[in-house]
Design a protein that fits this description.
Blueprint lengths: L7 H12 L6 E4 L12 E10 L7 E2 L5 E2 L2 E13 L3 H20 L12 E15 L2 E14 L1
Parallel strand pairs: 1-2
Antiparallel strand pairs: 2-5, 3-4, 5-7, 6-7
Length: 149
């Protein structure tokens, strides 16, 4: 099986495309991210970390040749709603988090996010109050870690 090299721009774009299908979500990535605040459920998608080693061969394929993998981290910042009433705020975060989890868990093992160069991925999430623009939002940050060719 041939795996194409995954670019940072394409990875972020494909994650955004998947998240944009969540009902009611405004998903923004790359050049579509703006400084302004949003009233609706908004997802900001961007990369945060890259890791690799130019001379390493960290995974062996079936032909016995080394296969170089890169670690790529993408963050999805969930802005659920502008802070107002704590109970309602955290309930909104939980509901939207379930929608994001559904999208992540629906990804196929082979070529998640329609990228054949993704070897594997996993995620973590942490809820919190997020400052964006001039407002505070109840939200969460989903950290997706990919191993890519």
């Amino acid at each position: 099986m041939t795996h194409s090299k995954v670019s940072v721009y394409d990875l972020v774009g494909k994650v955004k495309t998947a998240m944009a299908t969540i009902t009611g979500a405004i998903a923004k990535a790359n050049e579509t991210i703006t400084e302004g605040a949003h009233e609706k459920f908004t997802l900001l998608i961007g990369w945060s970390e890259l890791e690799g080693a130019a001379g390493s061969r960290t995974h062996m394929n079936t032909l016995g040749k080394g296969l170089q993998l890169r670690r790529m981290v993408v963050e999805i910042t969930l802005l659920a709603r502008q802070r107002s009433q704590i109970g309602e705020d955290w309930a909104a975060v939980a509901n939207y988090a379930d929608d994001i989890l559904d999208k992540l868990e629906a990804q196929p093992a082979a070529a998640p996010f329609s990228l054949s160069g993704v070897h594997t991925f996993h995620w973590t999430a942490r809820r919190g109050v997020i400052e964006y623009g001039s407002a505070s939002y109840a939200g969460a940050i989903f950290t997706l870690e990919f191993l890519c060719h």
